[in-house]
Design a protein that fits this description.
Helix content is 26%, strand content 25%. Helix 5 links the parallel strand 11 and strand 12. It is globular, with a radius of gyration of 21 Å. The structure holds flavin-adenine dinucleotide (FAD). The site of flavin-adenine dinucleotide has 37 residues, from helix 1, strand 2, helix 7 and strand 20.
């Protein structure tokens, strides 16, 4: 009887746990999920909370309700990974051992990494912050608004663009467009790091009279003076600053041997093994694989790990489907009830269709169907 331990009860952790529970017999393995939170958040819904289009409370369900009943769930925070002894240590001092370990601990927005950003900036990347931004937008009466990406990497790379489009629509509906100047910033020399996405997004920003500041690497926010300063020497005045903070992996991984200083697990981009460890895998946001940190990434990675573990337990050969090919799929909301879809893998860059109403309504439907299609999936 093997012990499979999965750290994280988010998108990736639930998919791996449920897939394993479906494939393995009860006498083959004990599957345990450790989650720091009792709740699983549908984070893509936070994009809509500031505009009053989603209620943050409806984007949450208990992790327990998403896991098959034979999966053991422990609520607690892993504080230490002792891979030599194949165990993790929790914040209450308990030790949990494993034969196989899957790390699915996600990523953490870190506004504290940029001086002044916590004081001067807002964002929608946590439940609390998306609701705080809702309250700010309720009071908003016009002014200079700077929306952008405060540092790389960050999860759901298109969300800042989507937010910019939805914000423009929102203030137009409120009759404040004439009183509002919007500036979108991005750290690279384009409005997005994937050229085909930038080619679709840039003309839309221009049509909607949204200023573009590329090569804007946020260095400091002077909250008292309401100024955002970039490494390149650009200074932007703002009345409202919405900046996605740079992200890190979770604290117990920062500087651990299997991760880098920022906590991104050194992950084989095909097998998803953590470094040379044959019994440790990572998926979702926590990996250092240079692709989008997205729920869809975790969704396509999960089965690859589950199949490897099952094959190892049963002494079977690995099939061709035990390799992750870099599949990512995300919607791109462009406002005014239109969206496009971005679908790619390591060998095929995305080709985007013109934004249309069908894609927008597919995304709306997916937002509701998430609970039945993704964390509970057993592929
Ligand atoms: C505003 C917004 C919009 C987004 N839109 C999209 C989208 O349209 N499409 C898309 O594909 N993705 C989107 N995403 C990204 C998506 O939500 C994440 O990429 C996805 O949730 C990553 O899954 P994960 O399993 O890696 O991490 P998470 O789902 O974040 O789960 C991490 C889990 O680890 C647990 N954990 C953390 N630390 C510890 C610890 N020390 N001990 C124990 N447990 C721990 C947490 O409690 C949690 O259960 C969006 C994200 C945001 C914020």
């Amino acid at each position: 009887m093997k012990n499979i331990l999965i750290i994280g009860g988010g998108t990736g952790g639930c998919i791996v746990a449920n897939t394993l529970a479906k494939k393995l017999d009860d006498d083959e393995a004990q599957i345990t999920v450790i989650s720091a939170s009792e709740q699983h958040h549908y984070q893509p819904g936070w994009l809509y909370v500031p505009f009053g289009r989603e209620d943050a409370r409806s984007l949450t369900r208990p992790v327990r309700s998403l896991l098959k009943k034979q999966i053991n769930l422990l609520i607690g925070k892993v504080e230490q990974l002792d891979n030599e002894n194949q165990q993790v240590i929790l914040d209450n001092g308990d030790t949990v051992t494993y034969d196989y370990l899957v790390i699915a601990t996600g990523s953490v927005p870190c506004p504290q990494d940029i001086p002044g950003l916590s004081e001067g900036g807002n964002h929608f990347y946590t439940e609390k912050d998306s609701f705080a931004l809702y309250q700010i937008l309720q009071e908003f009466r016009g002014g200079k608004v700077v929306i952008g990406v405060g540092g790389l990497p960050y999860k759901c790379p298109v969300a800042p663009l989507e937010f910019t489009f939805l914000f423009e629509e929102f203030i137009k509906e409120k009759g404040l467009r004439d009183k509002t100047e919007i500036t979108y910033t991005f750290p690279l020399n384009a409005v997005f790091n994937i050229p085909s996405v930038a080619e679709v997004a840039e003309p839309i920003l221009q049509e909607r009279n949204i200023n573009i500041e590329t090569f804007f690497n946020l260095e400091e926010v002077k909250a008292d003076e309401k100024k955002a300063l970039s490494l390149e020497g650009t200074e932007l005045d703002y009345d409202l600053l919405i900046m996605i903070p740079p992200h890190r992996g979770v604290p117990f991984l920062q500087g651990h041997d299997i991760a880098d200083a920022k906590g991104w697990v050194k992950t084989n981009k095909q097998t998803l093994h953590a470094g040379d460890h044959k019994n440790i895998w990572a998926l979702g946001d926590t990996t250092d694989i240079p692709i989008s940190k997205a729920g869809s990434t975790a969704h396509f990675e999960g089965p690859v790990i589950a199949k490897q573990i099952v094959a190892d337990i049963r002494g079977q050969e690995l099939g061709e489907d035990c390799v992750y090919e870099g599949h990512v799929m995300c919607f791109l909301e462009t406002g005014y009830s239109k969206a496009s879809i971005i679908d790619f893998d390591y060998s095929s860059p995305p080709v985007l269709k013109a934004p249309n109403a069908l894609m927008h309504y597919q995304k709306m439907a997916f937002n509701k169907a998430y609970w039945y299609l993704i964390p509970t999936a057993t592929i």
